[in-house]
């Protein structure tokens, strides 16, 4: 089944209007980090590519590939799955069933799971509005609210400069939980 441009369906009665809180869910990686719902990712990638934002890509051996776009106080990262060469896939139990006899789960990986994440409160608010998802009515936990309209004005007045390129490059280094937390602290999200 192909991914459709609309996010959601109401059983043939037309697309369901997705709200920001359904599209972006708080991540356990820290305040100001939000996971992007799977069916919004293609639409978000299109929006990012249409706006000529500073972009960087991280490709390291035995690490997930990371694409990063710098945007306002943070940005967006897209993390791809990593497969180690020569390693057989580990057995994965069927949801709701116990693991196979004799298998012991390995240690939890510190590598980031595949998916897209929005980093930064201003970035979240801008994307929610520009993607037509509404925006939070009140301050989010850990957020300091700006003057209404400031986020939109900052985005409209942006320019690509060496600092924003460095910001994208910094975001692209976040391949594991620890490094991404350092990146977030460096950006003061």
Summarize the SSE layout with pairings:
Elements lengths: L19 H4 E3 L6 E4 L4 H10 L4 E4 L7 E6 L2 E6 L35 E5 L1 H10 L19 H7 L5 H11 L4 H11 L2
Antiparallel strand pairs: 1-2, 2-6, 3-4, 4-5, 5-6
Write a brief structural summary.
The chain contains six helices and six strands; from the N terminus they run αββαββββαααα. With 189 residues, it is an alpha+beta fold. Mean pLDDT is 83; it is low at 1-14.
Describe it:
- By secondary structure, the protein is an alpha+beta fold.
- It is built from 6 helices and 6 strands, in the order αββαββββαααα.
- The longest helix is centred in the C-terminal third of the chain and has 11 residues, at about 160-170.
- Residues about 1-15 have low confidence and may be disordered.
Helix content: 25-40%
User: What would you report as the Rg, rounded to the nearest angstrom?
Assistant: 18 Å
Q: Approximately how much beta-strand content do the residues carry?
A: 5-15%
Report the major sheet: 6 strands, antiparallel
| N- to C-terminal distance | 37 Å
- The average pLDDT value, as a whole number, equals 83
* Low-pLDDT sequence parts: 1-14
Strand order of the largest sheet: 1-2-6-5-4-3
């Amino acid at each position: 089944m192909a991914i459709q441009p609309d996010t959601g369906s109401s059983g043939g009665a037309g697309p369901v209007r997705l709200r920001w809180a359904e599209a972006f869910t708080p991540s356990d990686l820290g305040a100001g980090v939000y996971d992007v719902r799977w069916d919004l990712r293609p639409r978000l990638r299109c929006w990012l590519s249409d706006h000529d934002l500073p972009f960087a890509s991280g490709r390291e051996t035995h690490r997930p590939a990371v694409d990063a776009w710098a945007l306002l106080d943070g940005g967006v990262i897209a993390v791809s799955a990593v497969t180690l060469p020569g390693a057989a896939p580990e057995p994965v139990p069927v949801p709701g069933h116990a693991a196979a006899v004799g298998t012991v789960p390995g240690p939890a990986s510190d590598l980031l799971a595949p998916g897209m994440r929005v980093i930064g409160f201003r970035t979240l608010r801008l994307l929610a509005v520009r993607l037509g998802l509404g925006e939070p009515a009140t301050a989010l936990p850990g957020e300091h609210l700006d003057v209404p309209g400031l986020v939109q004005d900052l985005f409209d007045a942006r320019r690509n400069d060496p600092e924003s390129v460095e910001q994208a490059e910094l975001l692209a280094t976040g391949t594991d939980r620890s490094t991404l937390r350092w990146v977030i602290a460096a950006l003061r999200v």
